[in-house]
Amino acid sequence: MPIPAPHKLAIYDMDKTITHAPTWTSFLIRTARHQAPWRLALLPLAGAATGAYAVKAIDRARLKQVTQRLLLGHRMRDIDARRAAERFADSVVASGIFAGARAQIAADKAAGYRLVMATASYRFYASAIAERLGFDDVIGTEVEQVGDRLHARIAGENCYGPAKLRMIQAWMAANSIDRADAAIRFYSDHVSDAPVLDWADEAFAVNAHGPLRALAREKGWPIVDWER
């Protein structure tokens, strides 16, 4: 009989895996509306940045930094960022979470899994959502902080694609969790998370878009629909 792994990890992507919709643009708009409504006039410039990303003129990390600078400014007070994150999390958790995600999170917790959110979204606001859903840890894109100010610059890597796997592995090392001693489940909606899905012991394609559905069929990963 195999010896149970001492560490059981259930790792979840956030946007469109747990939440009904992507969160970043919504967070920016809601926060700008509350803190500096005049910045909403800059939305067309944010749209232009999105267009530049679409034609690969800039990467995802640059897009995040540009849109944050436009709608939230070059820097935010840490206390303002925390308050914005709390307001936004209350709204998302009230009506923007898939019932299937809530059920799976509860089931994993009951089965003794440590709940970890691993998201490309900024950790400073994703953590507030994760806390309300009962997660134990959050791995996400970090922003530079100088004193009590959060700057519109990414610290380290954008937690996306292969970088997400590297950041999960770094988090495990920091928490003294050896891969050989861990049983790992991973849930995601997007093919960009293929490196983590391949690496996990159990991979779940959740609310998957077309490319991930095709890959899941090829790999034999379960395809789960939390939207219904």
Structure description:
The chain has about 230 residues and is an alpha/beta fold. The mean pLDDT is about 95. Helix content is about 45%, strand content about 20%. It has a single domain, classed as Rossmann fold (3-Layer(aba) Sandwich).
Question: What would the keywords be for this entry?
Answer:
eight-stranded mixed beta sheet, globular, 9 helices, 228 residues, alpha/beta, 47% helix, Rossmann fold
Quick structural overview:
With 228 residues, the chain is an alpha/beta fold. It contains nine helices and eight strands. Strands 2-5-4-3-1-6-7-8 form an eight-stranded mixed beta sheet.
Main β-sheet, spatial strand arrangement: 2-5-4-3-1-6-7-8
- Structural class of the secondary structure composition? alpha/beta
CATH uppermost class: Alpha Beta
Tell me the name of the CATH homologous superfamily.
HAD superfamily/HAD-like
Q: Tell me the series of helices and strands, N- to C-terminal.
A: EHHHEHHEHEEHEHEHE
Global outline: globular
Q: Indicate how many domains the architecture comprises.
A: 1
Number of strands: 8
Low-confidence residue ranges:
none
> What's the architecture in CATH terms?
3-Layer(aba) Sandwich
What is the name of the CATH topology?
A: Rossmann fold
Cα Rg: 18 Å
* Distance between the first and last residues' Cα: 38 Å
Strand content: 15-25%
The helix content is: 40-55%
Largest sheet: 8 strands, mixed
Helix count equals: 9
